[in-house]
Amino acid sequence: MKYAASFLLCLCMAVAPVYAITSANQEHDLNEIARVATLVVDGDVCQRIVTPRALQYMLHPNPRDRWSGGDNYDVNTPAFISTKKILMRLALMVSYPVDVNLWMPVPTTSRIQLVIRNHYDLSQFANNELDQKMPPEMQQVLQTGKTVTVRKKPEMISVLAPVRNSLDQIVGLVEVVSSTAPPTHDEQ
């Protein structure tokens, strides 16, 4: 019986998820995912995700209905799904919880929109609004095309990287984000 309990304990320890990654390793991993995302996320497809109709409601909200933009938000389904699948696959490049979110600037404004948010609902920037004021870190990525690492919130790391279209124009960005805290039961 004593040996059975020892064997069972060893077996449980062997199959239990191990979360012993250092912050430096994690930052390296997120930068690598961001580098790959810049290469494989198709900016031309991303530009087709939000429909012209949804954009009109966002840019010209009904003054008598403050929720009209969100109520009438729709997407080009094939563009949305193909991009979401790529973002989900990118998050699988590591063995711990990571989200890869797509952010797109709102045309003719200085605002930005979270177009695709993924599995763990992680982000250092999302505020649950349809669109929001452009954070300086995102503005920097959109203007320079350089990757930016952000540690605004405790126990979180985000790497922002540009998304380019076929004309090599920066049309959006990805936020590759993870928590530096041990995962909760739901994240394992």
Look at the helices and sheets and give the structural class.
alpha+beta
CATH fold-level name: Beta-Lactamase
Kindly state the number of beta strands. 6
Low-pLDDT stretches are 1-19
CATH class: Alpha Beta
Radius of gyration: 19 Å
Strands ordered across the widest β-sheet:
3-2-1-6-5-4
Tell me the fraction of residues in β-strands, as a range.
15-25%
- Distance linking N and C termini: 30 Å
- On the 0 to 100 scale, the average pLDDT is 88
Q: Which outline best applies?
A: globular
**Helix fraction by DSSP (H/I, runs of at least 4):** 25-40%
CATH 2nd-level architecture: 2-Layer Sandwich
Counted by DSSP, the helix tally is 7
Order of helices and strands: HHHHHHEEEHEEE
Largest sheet: 6 strands, antiparallel
Total discrete domains: 1
List keywords for this structure.
6-stranded antiparallel sheet, alpha+beta, Beta-Lactamase, 7 helices
Can you walk through the features of this model?
The protein is α+β, with helices and mostly antiparallel strands. The protein has one domain: 2-Layer Sandwich (Beta-Lactamase). The chain is 38% helix and 20% strand. The protein has a six-stranded antiparallel sheet with strand order 3-2-1-6-5-4, with helices on both faces. Helix 2 packs antiparallel against helix 6. The two termini are 30 Å apart. The N terminus is likely disordered.
Task: Give the SSE layout.
Blueprint: H1 2-15, H2 23-40, H3 43-46, H4 52-59, H5 68-71, H6 77-91, E1 99-105, E2 111-116, E3 132-133, H7 136-144, E4 148-150, E5 156-164, E6 170-179
Antiparallel strand pairs: 1-2, 1-6, 2-3, 4-5, 5-6
Helix pairs in contact: 2-6
